[in-house]
Amino acid sequence: MRQRISGYHQDELGDWVAELACGHQQHVRHQPPWFNRPWAATEAGRRAYLGMPLDCPYCDREGPRVQPPRPNRWGRVLEHVRNMQLDGFWALCLGVLLTVVTVGLSLLPFLVQVLWVAARTRCRVGAAPVAAVFGVCLTDNQVGAEYARRLERGLALLEAGEVEYLLLLGGVTGDAARSEAEAGRALLQARGVAGDRIFTEDLSRHTLENLRNARELARDRGWPELVLVSSRYHLARVGLTARGLSLSYRLCAAESRLRLTPGLIGCGLREAFYLQWYWCGKLWSVLTRNHKSLERIS
Ligand SMILES: [Zn+2]
C-alpha cells in the first residue's frame, strides 16, 4: 500500500528515515545501485518529496497503524489553500481578475477548447497496456452515475482486449469513508473483473495529483503510455495537465457521444476556468521567474 511521507528524522547512524502517514517508518537511503533515491540525499529533495506516496510493506502485512484524522469542511478548505501554495493562489487571483474585468469573455476561448475536445475525443483507443480511470466524489459512499460511466468505459476497454489493466485514480474526497479508487475497484470486482487486473492509486484528490501519481506508477511498472479515461467535459483539462507533465497518453471519452445539456455548459465553464487558471499559473511563473512552481505543473 502506498502511503504519503509526512516527515523525516535521522537514525542514530545519521541515515534518513521517512515517517509515513500510516504511522510506519522507512529508511530512504540513496545508495546506488541498490537504492536509487537521489532526492533523499539533499534537504531540498526531501522537502520536495514531502506528501509523495511511498510503498509501505508494513501496511500490506498489517494495515495502517494510525488513521489520519478527517478534517471538517472548513479544515478541508484551509488544507486545500495550503496545498495550493502561494503561486497557485496568485494565479487563481489573476484568473478571477481576468474573468471579472472581461465580464467572463476571457473564458470563451477556453470553453471552445473544452467543448472541442469533448466532442472530438473517441471512446475506442486501440491497444495499450493500461487505462487510467479518473474518480469522481462518491455520493453516500457509493459510486455515482458519472463515475459509473467512466468505470463502464474502462470495463469495455478491458473486455474488448484493448487494455490489459485498469488503474483507478482517486483518494478520499468529500465526506466519504473510502477512497474513490476503492469504491471503483469494488464495483468492477462485483462485475467480475479479476482483482489482479486492477491497480488503485488512492492518495490523490485532484487532476494534477491524479496524473502526477499515475506518472510515478507508470514509471514503476514500465508502462510506456497511459490511456486516460474521463467524462467528455473533463478531457481538455486532463490532456493539458498530462502534456504539462510530459506524459505519453491517449484520451478516451467515457460517454459514447457528447450530449448538449444545460449541465454540460455549467461543467464546461468550470473547466474553462481551470484551463485559464492553468495558463495564468504558467504566465505567473514566467513573469516571476519562478521555476519551482513551473516544475510543479510540469
Ligand atoms: Zn504503513
How would you characterize the overall build of this protein?
The protein folds into two domains: 2-62, no CATH class; 71-298, Rossmann fold (3-Layer(aba) Sandwich). It is 46% helix and 16% strand. The chain is built from ten helices and nine strands. The model has no long low-confidence stretch (mean pLDDT 87). Residues 3, 20, 22, 24, 56, 58-59, 64 line the site of zinc ion (ZN). Zinc ion binds next to helix 2.
What are the key terms here?
298 residues, alpha/beta, Rossmann fold, 2 domains, 5-stranded parallel sheet, 4-stranded antiparallel sheet, 10 helices, 46% helix, globular, binds zinc ion
CATH architecture of the largest domain: 3-Layer(aba) Sandwich
SSE class: alpha/beta
Write down the CATH topology of the largest domain: Rossmann fold
Shape, principal axes of CA atoms:
globular
- Give me the Rg, rounded: 20 Å
Topology order in helix (H) and strand (E) letters: EEEHEHHHEHEHEHEHEHH
The side-by-side strand order for the widest beta sheet comes to 7-6-5-8-9
Bound chemical compounds:
zinc ion
Distance between the termini: 26 Å
Q: What fraction of the residues are assigned to beta strands by DSSP?
A: 15-25%
- The total count of helices amounts to 10
Mean pLDDT: 87
Q: What is the CATH superfamily label of the largest domain? A: HUPs
Number of domains: 2
